[in-house]
Design brief:
The protein has 12 helices and no strands. The chain has 322 residues and is mostly helical. The radius of gyration is 26 Å and the shape is elongated.
């Protein structure tokens, strides 16, 4: 076997591998569409899936050009691989799924570089040109995923939402990092108090059939008010600094802090345009999230929330490029 023939066969094998990985990439992008939090992100993912399909078609043509056999099972393999990947992710936080996506893109880019060198050795200029284009496309996707990971690292996700299972797993993972004794004692005590409150409310409601609905509605109000008051009180008097911090973060996450405590002065008095300008001036992603959650719990203005989401994305991009 001549060197040229060996390079040609190696190129054929590499194109088959690239074709299957690219079909997996397209299916993964379509799965991510359902997790998109914003229309622009949804469109980007849909475009990426369509572009991956187009790359698959071009790889198929390139494979024929170098004398290879069309990959009849590539699409099926891609679907199965993507399904297996996404199913496995449900036992992991969203960040692990994104890191897996990143690994796939790195593998694609590295294989594209390898295929380009093989194509040069086999004197396949058209394939060389194609590989150069694909290298640029995968580099762009790598940067896109890195930005999504930065959003998660800064307290997101913003662009992509975890599935309910992933959200639960992420919460468990975060709770596991709390100091075991005091953190668990504080949470267990709070849970016990809430449970007693629910039991007492249920007994009161059951005392008369006519008052069930009214009692249930009253219970909801009482529990909500009690939760808010308990969190506020815990922030003030909890013996553990960790518990006080956790109570504060929970209040921030629910948008329950006072307007005076927001990082933007006189926030409640600002118009939409003024609020947008103020949010865009914030440099700390945590401050942006505090304002975002306060807005969600109060006025819930769509344009203001959209500005907050975009600001978080911008700050994530700055951290990636720093």
């Amino acid at each position: 076997m001549t060197k040229s023939t060996a390079a040609s066969l190696a190129l054929q094998n590499e194109l088959v591998a690239l074709l299957r990985l690219t079909r997996t990439e397209a299916q993964v992008a379509r799965v991510r569409v359902s997790q998109a939090q914003r229309d622009e992100i949804r469109r980007q993912l849909e475009d990426n899936a369509d572009e991956a399909d187009a790359r698959s078609a071009r790889l198929q043509d390139a494979l024929r050009q170098v004398g290879g056999t069309p990959d009849v099972f590539g699409d099926t393999v891609g679907r199965v691989t993507a399904l297996t990947k996404v199913t496995a992710e449900q036992a992991q936080p969203l960040s692990e799924g994104l890191l897996s996506d990143l690994a796939l893109e790195h593998q694609l880019r590295d294989r594209v570089v390898f295929a380009r060198v093989l194509a040069e050795a086999a004197d396949e200029s058209d394939v060389v040109s194609l590989m150069q284009e694909l290298e640029g496309a995968h580099t762009e996707t790598i940067e896109w995923i890195r930005l999504r990971l930065a959003e998660v690292a800064q307290g997101g996700p913003v662009a992509l939402a975890p599935t309910p299972t992933q959200a639960a797993v992420g919460a468990i993972a975060r709770f596991a990092t709390l100091p075991p004794r005091r953190g668990a004692a504080f949470v267990n005590k709070a849970a016990d108090l809430l449970a007693r409150g629910r039991v007492n409310a249920q007994r009161a409601a059951e005392s008369t059939a006519d008052s069930v609905r009214d009692a249930a509605e009253a219970t909801e109000d009482v529990v909500t008010a009690g939760r808010d008051a308990a969190l506020s009180r815990a922030e003030e008097v909890a013996p553990s600094a960790t518990a006080r911090k956790a109570a504060r973060q929970t209040r921030e996450g629910l948008g329950l802090i006072d307007a005076a405590d927001l990082p933007i002065q006189r926030y409640e008095q600002l118009t939409n345009a003024e609020a947008n300008e103020a949010i865009n001036s914030l440099k700390d992603p945590e401050q942006v999230r505090i304002v975002q959650r306060f807005e969600e719990a109060h006025k819930n203005r769509k344009r203001v929330l959209n500005t907050a989401q975009k600001r978080l994305t911008g700050l994530a991009a700055e951290s990636v490029n720093a």
